[in-house]
C-alpha cells in the first residue's frame, strides 16, 4: 500500500462525489471541521456531473464544463482524493482507494457514506462494447456530439454510398428519459448541421430509437408517452417499440422483435448510443455491506445501512442510485425510491443531518419521505414534455419548465449562472454547430509536424 498525506482527525468518508456525495460534503464540511473531524470525499472524477444536462450537452446548448461542478472549488473544507474505492472493510473501518497512477492507499474512517451511484447496465450483445457509447458521463456526451458532427461532415464528401449511409445512420437503444432526451437533441443538431451543409439532404439521414417495451418514458402518463412517440415520428425519427438490439458486430445493427424474436431490421450505423438502463455501482458488492438482489445496498428510511435482519449497521450510510431506500409514500416500484436526482439530492440532505446528529449531536434522526414532483423532459430547442406537480405539459411550456427547474437545480449559483449565460448566448447568436475535431488524438498535428521536421533534417 502506498501512503499519501491524510488528515489524522476522525473521518467521515464519502464514496462518490455525485449528487449525494457533493451535497453531503457541502452540508457537513464546516460543521464537522468545527466539531474536530474531517470530511473526506473520494471520487475518480474531480467533479460532480449534472447528468440531467447531458442531453443538452449533446445538443450543444450547454458547454461540457458548465454541466459539471468542480469539487475543489466548491468543497474547500473537504479532504479530496481523486481515486476509486475498490473495497470497504467496515469491521476494520477502512476503505481501499485505487489512485490514478495505479497505486492503492488505505483510508481509515469513523463513518462512511456510500454514494457511488449507478453505472450503465448492458447485456451481452455481440459488438455492443466495441461499437456503442453510453450517456452517463460528461466525456460521453461531449464525445457523442463531436462524433455526430464529424460523421456528418465526413459523409458529405464520401463517394461510397454504403459508407455514407452508415455515417448518416444514428441509433439510440433505450426509451427511458435519457434515451428520449438524447435522441431528440441528436435529431435537432443533426437537422441543423445538415441544413448548413449543401452536400447533404435531410432525406439521407436515418435516426432510429429502439425500445424493448411497448411504451417509452415510464415516468410520464401513457397518453403523454404516446404523444411523444407521435412527436418524434413527426420529426422523422423511427421509433421501434417492442424491439431489441440483437447484435452490433462491426457496427452492423440487427434489430429483433421482442414478440416473436424475428429480425425486424438490419443496417450499419457509425453511431450507436446505449441508454437502456442502469445498475447499482459494483463497489456495493465489493464492500462488506449487504446488497439486495439488484446489487443495491440496503438502507433504512433514515439512510442508515441495514443488515438482513433490518438492524442498523453503526457508522454506515447510503443514499442515491447505489441504495435501496424505502419509499415511504408507497409510490415506488417494489416499495423503493426510483433512482433519480430528485430523490438523491433530497436523501443527501436528510442523510447529512442524521449523520451529524448521530455522531456529534442529540442523536435525533428523521426518516426520508418525498412525494414525487413529477418529471419534465427537454426534447430539443422549444420542445418538451412532462407532468411537473401533476400538470400535463407539452411543447415550449414543458421545455421552459425543464430549463427553469434544472437551471436552478444544478448545484451552486456559479454553475447556474454559467449555464444560463450559455443559453442567453444561444438565444442571441443561434445554435452552435461547431464540433471539435481530433480530441481523441490531440497530439496528431504535433506528431506530424515533429515527424516532418525529422524527415527534413534527414534529407538535408
Ligand atoms: C442522461 C441522464 C439524464 C438524467 N435526467 C434526470 C432528470 O431529468 N431528473 C432526475 O431526477 N434524474 C435524472 N437522471 C438520474 C440522476 O442523474 C441520478 O439519479 C443521480 O445522479 C444519482 O445520484 P448519485 O449521487 O446516487 O449518483 P451519481 O450522481 O451518479 O454520482 C456517483 C459518483 O460516484 C463516483 N464513483 C463511481 N464509482 C466510484 C468508486 N468506486 N469510488 C468512488 N467514487 C465512485 C462517480 O464518479 C460519481 O461522481 C438522469 C441520468 C442520466 C444518465
Ligands: flavin-adenine dinucleotide
Overall mean pLDDT stands at 95
Q: What proportion of the residues form beta strands (DSSP E)?
A: 15-25%
Largest sheet: 8 strands, mixed
Helix count? 12
Molecular shape: globular
CATH superfamily of the largest domain: FAD/NAD(P)-binding domain
CATH architecture annotation name of the largest domain? 3-Layer(bba) Sandwich
Q: How helical, in percent, are the residues?
A: 25-40%
Strand order of the largest sheet: 7-6-5-2-1-8-20-19
Report low-confidence residues grouped into runs of 5 or more.
none
Distance between the amino and carboxyl termini: 53 Å
Structural class label: alpha/beta
- Let me know the number of strands: 24
CATH class of the largest domain: Alpha Beta
Q: Provide the gyration radius in Å.
A: 24 Å
CATH topology of the largest domain: FAD/NAD(P)-binding domain
Overall number of domains = 2
Summarize the structure.
With 460 residues, the protein is α/β, with parallel strands linked by helices. It is built from twelve helices and 24 strands.
Structure description:
This protein has helices at 19-34, 54-59, 71-74, 128-131, 138-155, 161-167, 177-195, 222-234, 341-360, 396-409, 413-429, 444-459, and strands spanning 11-15, 38-43, 47-49, 68-70, 79-89, 94-99, 104-108, 111-114, 118-120, 169-173, 206-210, 237-240, 243-247, 252-257, 263-268, 271-274, 278-280, 297-298, 304-306, 312-318, 323-324, 376-378, 384-386, 393-394. The strands form seven sheets. It has an eight-stranded mixed β-sheet. Strands 12-11-10-16 form a four-stranded parallel β-sheet. A three-stranded antiparallel β-sheet has the order 13-14-15. It contains twelve helices and 24 strands. With 460 residues, it is an alpha/beta fold. A hairpin with a 4-residue loop joins strand 5 (79-89) and strand 6 (94-99). The longest helix is centred in the C-terminal third of the chain and has 20 residues, at 341-360. It has two domains: 11-120 and 280-360, FAD/NAD(P)-binding domain (3-Layer(bba) Sandwich); 128-276, FAD/NAD(P)-binding domain (3-Layer(bba) Sandwich), CATH 3.50.50.100. Bound molecules: flavin-adenine dinucleotide. The site of flavin-adenine dinucleotide has 34 residues, from helix 1, strand 2, strand 5, helix 7 and helix 9.
